[in-house]
Amino acid sequence: MIYLDNAATTKPCAECVAAVNEAMENAFGNASSLHGLGTVSIQTIAKAKKTLLAAVTGTKAPFDGSVIFTSGATESNNTALLGSMHRFRPHALKIVSTAIEHPSVAKTFVRFEEDGFEVVRLAPKDCDDFVSALADAVDENTALLSAMAVNNETGFKIDVPRLYKEVKRKNPKTIVHIDAVQGFLKVPLDGDLISVSGHKIHSTKGIGALFVKKGEAVLPLLSGGGQQNGLRSGTEPVELIAGFDAAIRAYKGSEELFSRLKAHLLERLSEMDDIGINSGSDCVPNIVNFSVRGVRSEIMLHSLEEEEIYVSSGSACSKGKKSDVLPAFGISDKDTDCAVRVSFSAENTTSDVDALCDKIAKTIKRIRR
Ligand code: PMP
To answer: Which domains does the chain have, with CATH numbers?
Structure first.
């Protein structure tokens, strides 16, 4: 099997699996229990929080914020946005975001619009300098700015620390939320609220986190037992938290390796006719989106699958539905229909890329005949 769909999800690493098993054996107590087993769980969670804070902020303790563990980034994003809404009214009713957000952000903003907010969505294709354009759109009436650090379909990245600085210069009161699911451990981050997900970095599904900067406050989405300082009720999944901690510490992806794989892929694709590259130099190297003109995405996907090569058409979340994000990058409808997303992990090699390209070339020959 050649797995090249790591932006959809990653295989849990051995360190994560070992940590989950170990926690299931030895840290299965309820973190709210007053006895010793509860204490073991509390300590496991506290250790994971430190790992996460160091990884999100790129700093050492004392950290400039805290984390809430969630069920994944969908919950983190919803908590960040809906949990902040109470702070906006009645003074500021404008939200600035992008046209390339994940549905967990994009659909939440539709709810905000129904509630009377103005939502401005900028598309990369319309901006020479996307970060400055986002910051320019912020005014004294802007309650929140939400942008993804790295786009899940093309790998398009933004300079998050610069965005944070520029937005705060424009309006220090504007809350900055960053969906860092695809950027976590790959690009520098900054923000008042930052969402991350375990299953994209070789941890399990079902665990994510929301970083909350010191001085910021979100309201909880869930009512219940008041765990995690009342911010996220529900018994903490200690096993998944331990796995998340281990996966972060064991993360092996590197810009250097991914750049080598991307360069090899682009070189092999350049030998074929009529390929459009949708991921430029402003993208992280672990995600490469391209269009094989004349071969629809699903046909290519299933053809590759015959040789157990796994890639994606758009984002996995869209379940094969045509991407409405690619047009925001200026990619034509025709190229969107034929888009293939390849996303690497540290386990991939140049021979994986060769096997992929050999099969793409064969498929083109068969279909375009
Ligand atoms: N944001 C982005 C950019 C994503 O790629 C994803 C997952 N595809 C999510 C949010 C949702 O994350 P989760 O699967 O952890 O809910």
So the answer is: 14-250 (3.40.640.10), 253-368 (3.90.1150.10)
Whether omega for the bond prior to residue 327 falls within 30 degrees of 0, making it cis, is no
Which among 177, 317, 323 is the best mutation to test ligand 1's pocket, defined by most ligand atoms within 8 Å of the CB?
Answer: 317
Tokens of 195: 């969402």
Which ligand 1 atom lies nearest to the CA of residue 197?
15
Catalytic residue among 13, 16, 283, 317: 317
Helix axes 350-368, 297-305, angle to 10 degrees: 120
120-124: long-range pairs with CB below 8 Å, 24+: 120/94, 120/95, 120/96, 121/97, 122/96, 122/97, 122/98, 123/98, 123/99, 123/328, 123/329, 124/98, 124/100, 124/156, 124/328, 124/329, 124/330
The helix/strand count (H/E) of the chain reads as 12, 12
Euclidean distance between the first and the last CA atom of the chain, given in angstroms as a whole number: 28
pTM, to two decimals: 0.97
Cβ atoms 197, 181 nearer than 8 A: yes
| Closest atom of ligand 1 to CA, residue 199 | 15
Are 230 and 220 within 8 A, CB to CB?
yes
pLDDT tens digits in sequence order for the chain, 369 residues long: 999 999 999 999 999 999 999 999 999 999 999 999 999 999 999 999 999 999 999 999 999 999 999 999 999 999 999 999 878 767 778 999 999 999 999 999 999 999 889 999 999 999 999 999 999 999 999 999 999 999 999 999 999 999 999 999 999 999 999 999 999 999 999 999 999 999 999 999 999 999 999 999 999 999 999 999 999 999 999 999 999 999 999 999 999 999 999 999 999 999 999 999 999 999 999 999 999 999 999 999 999 999 999 999 865 555 656 788 999 999 999 999 999 999 999 999 999 999 999 999 999 999 977
What's the DSSP call for residue 289?
E
